[in-house]
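Reopening this ticket.

The earlier resolution said the output was attached, but the attachment link was broken on my side. Pasting everything inline this time so it's all in one place.
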Amino acid sequence: MDSILAIDADVAGVSFELFSVQGEGRLEQQIKGRLGGLGSCPRLKAHRMNGDSLAHRVYRSDDVGDVAAAFTVVDAWLRDELGVEPLAVGHRLAHAGPNDAQPVLIDDAVMVRLEQLVALAPLRLPHNLAPIRSMRANHPALVQVACFDSAFHLSRAAGSDGQPYDDELAIARHTLAFLLNGPSSR
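Inline output:
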């Protein structure tokens, strides 16, 4: 199954949704989950969209102590237990520069620029970047796309009716559009 994985990482954990790519680029939500409770009682919960539970696991805080470790667990669970090999991963990021009003393909230059912007959102951006680093290290050929919350604010300032990336479906849609149409997609 061709799929897009959408990731939203924050200080307390990693939320994820898996979408299958249907005909004509339509996305169908398949799995929704979160590994949360970092710093206290890490817990992976995931379910299919029909409500069937796929996972409800508790981890030791020492084993899953930060977002990078949480994403490693999520990635291994999706790949090893469910056989998921996504076409691409879309990541929600808190901030970007003034030229990033559109989703961007993550490459070395983008990573350098994003690392330099951590001071703009020190409580969120480091956690947003952790899954990207992990995917680049473990799956270097996988397409990754960054979808920026700050793009919403830039589009609003320009008078557009752009929507924020307030859910994983929006992230997946923009990631798929990027895959199908390149960087000029919206």
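Reporter confirms the inline version is readable. The two ends are 24 Å apart (CA to CA). The first strand starts at residue 3 and ends at 10.
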